[in-house]
Write the structure tokens for this entry.
Amino acid sequence: MCPTMYENFLKKIAPYITKSSQKREPVGPSERLSVKLRYLFTGDAQKTIASSFRISPTCISRIINETINALWNVLMSEYLICPSLEQQWKKIAKDFETNWQFNHCLGAINGKHIVMQSPPRSGSMFYNCKKMHSLVLMAVCNANYQFTMVDIGDSGRNSDGGVYLSCNLGIAINENKLGIPSREKMWNIDVKYPYVFVGDAAFPLKTNLMEPYSKESLGMKERIFNYRLS
């Protein structure tokens, strides 16, 4: 991270992580941000970071949690804007139609495994099919590769489809809690089609979630559809 970017982050987050104390001099906002960035960028153990900064492990743990929460709350509205109005969703759908020739699409959804060390006494809860321990990041992107929604924290042993059905993001889509536009006609055909999200074959087929056709015996129309969806 360049110095300019660091200073910009610090300026935004400092009011939320500045502490005061009558007993001792508190850890300043710049050092708190440095601790958090060290933890995120290197993956070092908290004891190692505590030794480097000469701060107690208990305090390091508290600093990391408080600073990450503050950074999320400050930056979320700037970098992760979830559409909530019908016109916002339709703008995304128009971008998909223009950029990728896929109509009525509100976002591409997929899961990403974030590798981690197995938590104590967790057994096989986070052990995934790639023989590593992980958390699952379920995310939706718009036509310009920008994140619009995320759901983080499901265990790595679950499939993308299983995570989708149980996570808040998937539930919100399936229960129509996101202000998604109602069905509309396409290409002057007298049939109203739903607006949809698109995923790969790991996801279940739902009213507002499309998956590709099975690769067995595909006709030309099905091949074109799969190409557009991918």
